[in-house]
Every structure is written in structure tokens, then in C-alpha cells.
Amino acid sequence: MKHNSRDFCCFDDTNNDENNSKNRRSYIGKIVSYTVIFSLLAEILFLCFYFGKKIQKYVYPKRFSEYVTEYCAEYGVPQALIYATMKVESDFDSDAVSSAGACGIMQIMPKTFGEISELLSESVSDSDMFNTQINIKYGVLYLSMQYESFGCWEYAILAYNAGPQRVTEWLSDGKINVDDDKWDIPFEESAEYIKKIRRCADKYSKIYDMEKIKWKS
User: Fold this and answer.
1) 125 vs 3, 38, 114, 182, CA distance in Å?
2) Burial code of 4-34, b = ≥16 C-beta within 10 A, e = fewer?
3) In whole angstroms, how far apart are CA 18 and each of 23, 26, 31, 38, 60?
4) Annotated catalytic sites, by residue?
5) What are φ and ψ of residue 37, in 5° steps?
6) Per the CB 3.0–4.6 Å rule, which of 80, 96, 145, 164 could disulfide with 201?
7) Which positions ≥6 away from 60 have C-beta within 8 Å?
8) What is the DSSP secondary structure assignment for residue 212, as one 8-state letter?
9) Please, are residues 82 and 72 in contact by the beta-carbon 8 Å criterion?
10) How many Cβ atoms are within 10 Å of 131's Cβ, its own excluded?
11) What does the pLDDT read at residue 47?
12) What is the pLDDT of residue 121?
């Protein structure tokens, strides 16, 4: 039996059409799949960013911001540093009392509290050490005073923790050595304290878009 060559041509064209149709469907299917996957990934990334920010703000809250804003502006102290100090010192507990006797949200020693009240000519009682507004005000002022004395925030933080007299002695005796973020000082606890405050303050600066603190090292 003879076959017309055109019969074969028609048969081949039909196969080509079917193959092309399959390829188009496959191509469209891939585009749809990629689009869905891309959309899901974009949504996952958005949710991670959104809830990541929420979690960070939960871990690093801005509590008592009205007092922090007011007194940081008045005494020239970075807000991030005060939030970090409150978090590290007392975890924002206004009733906190340390084993050394430091009191309140900023963990101020009674003697220092009394000296600041005299400096400001304010009449306060012992219970006022646990007054959140007063404790923050005095803590901010005290840090500002240490910065004026020592010229950098790290030394101010160190003086806040170990006392300005010790820091003055350590500096004059050459007992404070800094290599990048490694602090070699007589009190290991104070060296760790500086690192904690710095890390925490930098976190606050980043999370809340606050002005970044200019560190010495």
C-alpha cells in the first residue's frame, strides 16, 4: 500500500502541535509554580521581619520613655545608654535592691543619691530612691557627670559601676588597658559590665533608630 507523502507531513504537524502545546503548558505551569513559591517566600520574609522586630522590641522595651526623653535631653546623655543601663542594672524593676545596696531602676547607691539631691537642692526621702522618675533623673545626671569627668562613655559607665574614685586611680596607675572590645581592668565584673552595656545600647540604637553612641574603642 502506497502512502502519500503529504499524509506523513500532516501526521508530523499534528505531533508538533501537540508537543508545542505540552511545552507551553509545562512552561506556564513552571511560571505559576515559581510565582507561587516567590510569593510565599516574600510573605515568609515579611513575617520574619515584622515579628522579628516585635520580638526584639519585647526583649528590649522602651519603658518610662517620657522620663528618659526628658532627662536625656536635659543632661545630654544618649537615650540608648539609659535604656541599656536600666535593663542591665534592674531589668526595669523600680523596686530592685542589689546585694551591695544599690536601689531603684537605675541602681543608685544611697550615698550617691543623697549627694545628687544636695547638688540639685532637692529635698528627698529614702523612699524616693524607688520613685521611678526621680531615680531615672538622678541616674541620667550621674552618668552625665561621669562623662564630663572622664571624657568618654566607656569610662563614664565604668565609674557608674565601680565608682569614679577607683576609675581615677586605675587611669593614673595605667591599670585600664583596652584592645578593641577587650577590657583589661582590675575588676573583671566591671569589664563584663561595660561589654553588656555597650552591646545592649547598640541594640537599642539599631531597633529604635536612635542616634548611635560614639564609643572610645
Assistant:
1) 115, 63, 9, 40
2) eeeeeeeeeeeeeeeeeeeeeeeeeeeeeee
3) 9, 12, 20, 30, 62
4) 89
5) -65, -45
6) 80
7) 83, 87, 200, 203, 204, 207
8) P
9) yes
10) 16
11) 52
12) 97
Tell me the three state secondary structure of residue 4: coil
Q: Model pTM?
A: 0.77
Per this entry, what is the length of the chain? 217
Concatenated DSSP letters for 56-97? Answer: HHHHS--TTHHHHHHHHHHHT--HHHHHHHHHHHHTT-TT-B
CB count within 10 Å of CB 87 equals 21
Ramachandran angles phi, psi of 122, nearest 5°: -110, 140
Sign of the CA dihedral 67, 69, 70, 76?
A: positive
Give ∠ CA 164-84-194 in degrees, rounded to 5: 45
Beta strands in the chain (DSSP E): 177-179, 182-184
- Reading the block at residue 113, the C-alpha cell is 543619691
Q: What is the pLDDT of residues 64-118, one digit of tens each?
A: 999 999 999 999 999 999 999 999 999 999 999 999 999 999 999 999 999 999 9
Number of neighbouring beta carbons within 10 Å of residue 97: 14
User: Is there a contact between 157 and 166 (Cβ–Cβ < 8 Å)?
Assistant: no
Contact 42, 63 (CB under 8 A): no
